Structures are given as structure tokens and as C-alpha cells.
């Protein structure tokens, strides 16, 4: 076995696909392919999987995720129709409008899912800037990036997981998690920059992350209430919905749970105002003439 191989763990019945990040003596450090999970396992516990069984963008092509994207697209169309009807009713004219969706700053501890996330943001017309940042460096990165980018929505995600064999340390202890403390640190830095949860929305966490600690630190939405494995692109779906939810509207997790694959066991949060603004009249793109 070597770095880059796709593997499953025998002791877990091969339930999760991983990619070997590196090998340390007789142990492999693993990053989830379908799920945002960081793990390690003895080499003898691993079974190599055929790369042809691993899609370039694993579960992003699953029926559940395709349905999430369809619902996001439908909600955007409905918002546009609502805007146009409002203008027509008040002005009795065919004037158009322009859109200012919320801007996303996406920090990801997994470069593969960062690339996929940026692709989907583009397809959904969500203005976004993404950076691959190892989880331990996210707080410092936000301290530098927030004043430059001035986002409406911040996504802080990557890989996480509950550590085994931590005697005397239960799931309430942050030291029981691989990266939850790093995510908490990042959220705290972001909240020092902007305290208002409606002025800057934060979506934070990964698989099995310490949900309560992330909310206490200042996140609007976080994983994982039931400490389960979350779909790798669930945080993106929440951010995309918030980007196209009017600043006049408040949404809760109950309003957007059907946009996620893992549901309320995977993500939760507090009521939050959207970050989308409509402008009138429509902006005309004028051509320069000599």
C-alpha cells in the first residue's frame, strides 16, 4: 500500500471509502472520500479498493445530492419570479432588477472537495472564494482573509472525527475530536471580526464535529448534532441557500434540512437572516463607442 491508494477498513466492514494521505510506519492516515472524516488505521486492517469504483466526485452524483441541487436551483427561480412580480405590481411596468447574492468565503481542509465545492458554487451562481487550508491553520487564515474578502457567509470545513481510546474523555470534551478545536478557534476568530450572526453567517464543522462547541463559539450552523458522518457537500448546500435568501427573510434549519443529505442528525443551527439583496432598476450593460 502507498500514499494515494483508495482503501476501506476491515474492522468497520468496509463501510467508508478512504484515501491514504500518508503512511507512518505500520499505520495509515486516512481521509474520507465520501464523507468529511479523518482517521487512522493499521495497514493490516485495510483493503485496497479498485480506483474505477471511486468517482471523481464521489457522492456528489448520488440521487440525494442531485435532489439537493435541484431544490436549490428551484428556490432561486422562485425568488426571481417573486422579485419580478413585486416590481410589476408596484410599478405597473416591465422594469427589471439586479441581484446581489451573499458572498461566500469557503475554507476547506480537503483540496478535492474544495475544487468540487467551487465548481458547484459556480453552477449555482453563488459568488465564492475558496482556499485549501489545513484545519490547524484556519484561524490564522481567517484573521488574514476576512478583512480582504469581507464575506457575507463563511464556511469552515474539512475533516474531523471522534478519537478512540481517550480514557476519561467523553464526547463533551473537545480533546476527544481530531479537529473540532481547530474549527472552534476559527469560528472564534471570525466572530471577533464580526459579532453579528446576521451580518456574517458562519457554517462550520465536518464529520462527527462537536456541534454544541461550534454554536457556542458563534457558528450559525454546524455539524454534527448526532456525531454522525456528514455528506462532504452538505455545508455548501446551506451556504448556497443563505446566499440566495433575502435579507428580509429568516430561515431555520427546519427550512433547509431537505437541502442536506444527512438531515438534522448531521447539521443544526439557529434562525438566521439571508444575505441576498434585490436592486432596481436592472443594470444596463453599455457598450463603449469611439
UniProtKB/TrEMBL annotation:
InterPro entries: Peptidase_U57. Pfam families: Peptidase_U57 (PF05582). It comes from the Bacteria. This is Sporulation peptidase YabG. It comes from Paenibacillus phytorum.
Amino acid at each position: 500500500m502507498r500514499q494515494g491508494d483508495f482503501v476501506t477498513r476491515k474492522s468497520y466492514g468496509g463501510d467508508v471509502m478512504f484515501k491514504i494521505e500518508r503512511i507512518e510506519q505500520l499505520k495509515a492516515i486516512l481521509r474520507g472520500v465520501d464523507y468529511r472524516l479523518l482517521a487512522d488505521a493499521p495497514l493490516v486492517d485495510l483493503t485496497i479498493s479498485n480506483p474505477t469504483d471511486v468517482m471523481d466526485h464521489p457522492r456528489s452524483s448520488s440521487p440525494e445530492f442531485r435532489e439537493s441541487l435541484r431544490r436549490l436551483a428551484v428556490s432561486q427561480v422562485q425568488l426571481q419570479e417573486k422579485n419580478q412580480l413585486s416590481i410589476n405590481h408596484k410599478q405597473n411596468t416591465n422594469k427589471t432588477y439586479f441581484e446581489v447574492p451573499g458572498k461566500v468565503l469557503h475554507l476547506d481542509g480537503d483540496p478535492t472537495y474544495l475544487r468540487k465545492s467551487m465548481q458547484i458554487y459556480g453552477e449555482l451562481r453563488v459568488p465564492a472564494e475558496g482556499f485549501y487550508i489545513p484545519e490547524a491553520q484556519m484561524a490564522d487564515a481567517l484573521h488574514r482573509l476576512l478583512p480582504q474578502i469581507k464575506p457575507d457567509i463563511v464556511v469552515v470545513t474539512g475533516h474531523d472525527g471522534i478519537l478512540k481510546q481517550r480514557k476519561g474523555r467523553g464526547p463533551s470534551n473537545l480533546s476527544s475530536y481530531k479537529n473540532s478545536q481547530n474549527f472552534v478557534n476559527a469560528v472564534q476568530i471570525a466572530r471577533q471580526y464580526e459579532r453579528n450572526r446576521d451580518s456574517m453567517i458562519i457554517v462550520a464543522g465536518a464529520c462527527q464535529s462537536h456541534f454544541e462547541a461550534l454554536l457556542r463559539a458563534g457558528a450559525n450552523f454546524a455539524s454534527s448534532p448526532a456525531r454522525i458522518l456528514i455528506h462532504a457537500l452538505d455545508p455548501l448546500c446551506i451556504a448556497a441557500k443563505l446566499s440566495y435568501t433575502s435579507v428580509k427573510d429568516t430561515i431555520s434549519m427546519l427550512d433547509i434540512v431537505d437541502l442536506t443529505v444527512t438531515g438534522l442528525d448531521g447539521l443544526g443551527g439557529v434562525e438566521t437572516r439571508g444575505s441576498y439583496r434585490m436592486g432596481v432598476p436592472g443594470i444596463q450593460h453599455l457598450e463603449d463607442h469611439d
